[in-house]
Amino acid sequence: MDKDQMYMELAVKEALKAKAIGEVPIGAVIVLNDEVIGAGYNLRETDQRSIAHAEMIAIDEACRRTGSWRLEDATMYVTLEPCPMCAGAIVLSRVKRVVYGASDPKGGCAGTLMNLLDESRFNHQSEVTRGVLEEECGRLLSDFFRELREKKKALKASSKNLQ
After folding, report:
1. What is the similarity comment for this entry (predicted)?
2. Would the pTM count as exceeding 0.90?
3. Is 150 an annotated catalytic residue?
4. Catalytic residue (choose from 55, 134, 135, 136)
5. C-alpha span between 140 and 136 (Å, rounded)
C-alpha cells in the first residue's frame, strides 16, 4: 500500500467519526514529514458553525501543533474534494499538496467546478491528486445520504399514520 492510500485511510477513519454522530462523513488529516499534525471531521451540525468542515478543523490543529500558519511542506488528505471555503483556507495556509478521494460535482473547487488550488493569480498553488480510495470515500457519502432519505421517508410515513 502506498502512502497516499495509507493516509487516506486515516482520513476515512475521521469521516467515520462524523458519521457516528450523524454528521456528513467527511474526514481530513494533514501530514508533515510522515507525521499526522492535524486531523478533523465534519462538525457543522454538531457545533452549528458553517466553518466546522473537516479541512478547517485539521488546518487549525496543524497550525497550533506546528506553531505556524504556514503549512508549506504539508500534505492534506481529505475524503471529499474541498469546497470554496476550504480550498481558500488551504491556499492561505500554503499546504503544499492536497489528496482527495471523491469528487464533489456540486461544490468541488480542486478541479471539478473550478480549481482554486491551482489558480495562478493567488500567491500560492497546491499540487492536487484526485481519486485516492475514490470508491470507498464516495460510498461513505452516498450511503449516508441514502440512509438519511430513508429515515426521513419513514418518519414522514409514521407521522402520516398517526393522523
Report:
1. Belongs to the cytidine and deoxycytidylate deaminase family. ADAT2 subfamily.
2. yes
3. no
4. 55
5. 6
Taking alpha carbons only, the member of 146, 138, 133 closest to residue 108 is 138
> What's the chain's Rg over C-alpha atoms?
17
pLDDT tens, position by position, 75-113: 999 999 999 999 999 999 999 999 999 999 999 999 999
Architecture per CATH, domain 3-162, reads as 3-Layer(aba) Sandwich (3.40)
- Spatial contact of 40 and 58, defined as CB atoms under 8 Å apart: yes
Binding-site residue positions: 53, 83, 86
CB 30 within 8 A of CB 52: no
Per the annotation, where are the binding residues for Zn(2+)? 53, 83, 86
